[in-house]
């Protein structure tokens, strides 16, 4: 199993009456709610946590891209990954990812990801999301019905740019480059492992299988609700005659660990509630720009998890609802171990993106939960897929010898 | 009104065309929402004209939307439809997004479009009067945005729809995504594809028709079209919103009569 410690980087100072006063945490949330001076501490605390996770043995540390979003403060995940590349040595830098249709020209992604791979000594996991409708269409103005075509073209350009040894002419509909020429090139050959975040599009399943990319389902509704979707993916894998390595799949899960189940509620309920009630308050009009999803996907009834009904449902969920419904996995190390086994086996995933910082959770609690997970949960789950232990196709291949940093970096936090 | 499915552009798309009435041929281009069930405005138009109302690809069973990427593609597609219908210089009338396309056609081929009716047309952008984001509206907000008479609007927009039936809702969402998917190529995120720079080319006798209570594309846009199209008339109609043809069909018909 590969465990990636993931931080969405939420803004922890949304007011108590946020739901009442504002219609959305995303797209048109007023930036007056952001305070850059507090933001300085927020960023640095979050980055320290990611570095701390490496010291505890997590396989990867993860960042992602959102725009105009009160629960995702990383419009540029590459800047975050760049700071981490200098202060970590071993963990994969999981950038989940760059919304490649948004970069102009998209060879910028080939360049920046190559920079990160070189800086980190070949530790980059490159994510290529199509992007949510909120980010891609509403905030970044991409035409919904053309987004997927633009994405496909950007993907082709990036992969060709990484593979090519000579400049080439790229004549796309959206990008025309006379000299497509990627400097630098990534360390990992033929390219860094590629993860595709998906939300149930049939096309995305096939895209991952065509290229042997890892399919990652990033959901906030937890593993129980993900079964049907992931089963759809594995059915597709079987139908396409591909091997069923669990490393073809990843899943994001909100996790809270404490000494006991009761203690978990006492410590974390407030912060979990902040996330589900405040951070997931997205205006339904922004959830799904018409034309963004393909008709095939709509017909498969894979409607967005951010539909009105489910959004309203989030607001009223209690700790008990969230735990019993499997939205979150929370409790003592024993409880979490057991639930994690259900998740991993039930969804057949080799990658877990662990959401251990939640909402407005303070640093001490985040580290407490993270440490318990790393020491008392993770070791018991490591070898859950023994028959695939040697499958290294979907993970990083760092360069053999790391150059010693000029200034030794203290790796022993706490 | 009868409808036929015609081949356009030699296999590039199949287009559903509603047609009926007698009189001078009139090509009607619909707005982003498409036509309504038993479209009452088309019915009124057909009392005076031989009406042809093609549906853009993505609307009902008109297909070939993947071939259309931008304003020019859609403008030429509409000329292809005209050709396929055997129409020579019909009266060209467009509502909202359809007006945007009609105006573009008149600018691109000024000798092919001699009479032009623009009803609450999209296509321009005035910073002082930003057009609301129709792609972020929820279904229940539509009647208030489109109609002066909200009760009439609600009745017209929900006629034949059963929002309580989940199966129907799925199909409705699919159709909506297809319609607005096409519309987004012209209107998302800002409904401006440079028409303002090209309107100087329009030679058609033009009448610009606006509901005074239009909340979506406010009457200032009617002034802007009148100002930019040489010799255009502007007819403002009281107590009517964006769907002026459905709220005040008589007034719209008499305004269009100026094109005779």
3D architecture notes:
The complex is a heterodimer of chains A (414) and B (260). Chain A is 42% helix and 13% strand. Chain A is an alpha/beta fold. In chain A, α3 (77-87) packs parallel to α4, α4 packs across α6 (147-163) and α7 crosses α8 (222-239). Chain B has helices at 40-45, 71-84, 97-108, 142-146, 150-158, 166-187, 220-228, 244-247, 249-256; strands at residues 2-8, 13-20, 24-29, 49-54, 91-95, 115-119, 205-211, 233-237. The mean pLDDT of chain B is 96. Helices cover 34% and strands 19% of the residues of chain B. In chain B, α3 (97-108) links the parallel β5 and β6. An 8-stranded mixed beta sheet of chain B has the order 1-2-4-3-5-6-7-8, sandwiched between helices. Chain A binds chain B through residues 27, 137-138, 141, 143-146, 173, 283-286, 289-293, 295, 298-299, 301, 303, and chain B through 65, 69, 133, 135-138, 170, 173-174, 176-185, 188-190.
Strand tally of chain B: 8
The H/E string of chain B reads EEEHEHEHEHHHEHEHH
Largest Cβ-defined interface: A-B, 23 and 23 residues
End-to-end C-alpha gap of chain B: 23 Å
Distance between the termini of chain A: 26 Å
Instruction: For the largest sheet of chain B, list the strands in their spatial order.
Output: 1-2-4-3-5-6-7-8
Strands of chain A, count = 11
Which oligomeric form is depicted? heterodimer
The portion of residues assigned to helices of chain B is: 25-40%
The residue-averaged pLDDT of chain A reads 93
Anisotropy-based shape of chain B: globular
The main sheet of chain A comes to: 8 strands, parallel, barrel
Enumerate the spans of chain B where pLDDT stays under 50 for 5 or more consecutive residues: none
């Amino acid at each position: 199993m590969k465990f990636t410690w993931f931080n969405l980087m939420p803004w922890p100072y949304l007011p108590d009456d946020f739901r009442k006063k504002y219609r959305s945490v995303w797209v048109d949330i007023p930036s007056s709610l952001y305070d850059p001076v507090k933001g300085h501490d927020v960023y640095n605390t979050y980055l320290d946590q990611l570095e701390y996770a490496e010291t505890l043995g997590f396989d990867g540390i993860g960042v992602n891209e959102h725009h105009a979003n009160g629960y995702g403060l990383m419009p540029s995940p590459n800047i975050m990954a760049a700071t981490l590349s200098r202060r970590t040595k071993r963990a994969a830098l999981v950038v989940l990812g760059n919304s490649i249709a948004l970069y102009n020209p998209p060879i910028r992604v080939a360049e920046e990801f190559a920079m990160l791979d070189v800086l980190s000594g070949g530790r980059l996991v490159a994510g290529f999301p199509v992007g949510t409708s909120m980010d891609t269409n509403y905030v970044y103005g991409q035409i919904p019905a053309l987004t997927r075509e633009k994405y496909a073209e950007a993907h082709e350009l990036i992969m060709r740019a990484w593979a090519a040894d000579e400049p080439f002419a790229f004549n796309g509909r959206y990008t025309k480059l006379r000299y497509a020429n990627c400097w630098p090139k990534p360390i990992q050959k033929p390219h860094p492992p590629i993860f595709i975040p998906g939300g149930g599009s049939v096309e995305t399943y096939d895209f991952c299988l065509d290229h042997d990319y890892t399919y990652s389902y990033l959901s906030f509704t937890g593993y129980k609700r993900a079964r049907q979707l992931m089963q759809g993916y594995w059915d597709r894998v079987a139908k396409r005659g591909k091997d069923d390595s669990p490393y073809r799949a990843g899943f994001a899960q909100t996790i809270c660990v404490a000494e006991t189940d009761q203690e978990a509620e006492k410590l974390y309920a407030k912060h979990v509630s902040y996330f589900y009630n405040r951070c997931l308050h997205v205006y339904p009009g922004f959830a799904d720009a018409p034309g963004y999803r393909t008709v095939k996907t709509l017909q498969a009834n894979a409607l967005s998890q951010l539909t009105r009904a489910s959004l309203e449902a989030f607001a009223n969920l209690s700790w008990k609802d969230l735990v019993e419904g499997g939205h979150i996995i929370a409790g003592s190390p024993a409880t979490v171990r057991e639930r994690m086994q259900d998740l991993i086996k039930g969804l057949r995933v080799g990658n877990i993106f662990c959401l251990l910082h939640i909402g407005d959770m303070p640093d001490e609690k985040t580290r407490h939960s993270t440490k318990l997970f790393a020491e008392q949960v993770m070791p018991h789950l490591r070898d859950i897929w023994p028959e695939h232990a040697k499958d290294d196709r979907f993970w990083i291949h760092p360069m053999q010898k790391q150059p010693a940093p000029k200034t030794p970096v203290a790796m022993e936090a706490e | 009104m009868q409808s036929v499915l015609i081949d356009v552009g030699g296999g590039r798309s199949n287009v559903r065309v509603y047609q009926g009435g007698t009189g001078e041929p009139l090509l009607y281009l619909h707005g982003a929402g498409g036509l309504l069930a038993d479209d009452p405005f088309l019915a009124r138009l057909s009392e005076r004209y031989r009406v042809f109302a093609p549906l853009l690809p993505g609307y009902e069973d008109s297909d070939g939307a993947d071939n259309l990427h931008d304003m020019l593609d859609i403008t030429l597609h509409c000329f292809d439809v005209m050709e396929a219908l055997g129409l020579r210089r019909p009266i060209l009338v467009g509502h909202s997004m359809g007006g945007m396309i009609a105006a573009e056609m008149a600018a691109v081929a000024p000798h092919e479009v001699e009479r032009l009716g623009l009803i609450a047309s999209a296509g321009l952008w005035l910073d002082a009067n930003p057009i609301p984001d129709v792609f972020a509206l929820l279904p229940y907000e539509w009647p208030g945005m489109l109609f002066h008479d909200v009760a009439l609007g609600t009745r017209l927009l929900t006629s034949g729809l059963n929002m309580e039936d989940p199966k129907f809702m799925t199909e409705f969402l699919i159709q909506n995504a297809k319609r607005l998917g096409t519309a987004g190529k012209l209107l998302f995120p800002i409904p401006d594809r440079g028409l303002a720079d090209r309107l100087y080319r329009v030679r058609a006798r033009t009448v610009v028709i606006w509901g005074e209570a239009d909340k979506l594309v406010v009457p200032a846009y009617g002034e802007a079209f009148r100002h930019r199209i040489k010799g255009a008339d502007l007819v403002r109609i009281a107590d009517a919103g964006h769907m002026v043809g459905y709220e005040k069909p008589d007034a719209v018909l008499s305004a269009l009569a100026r094109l005779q």
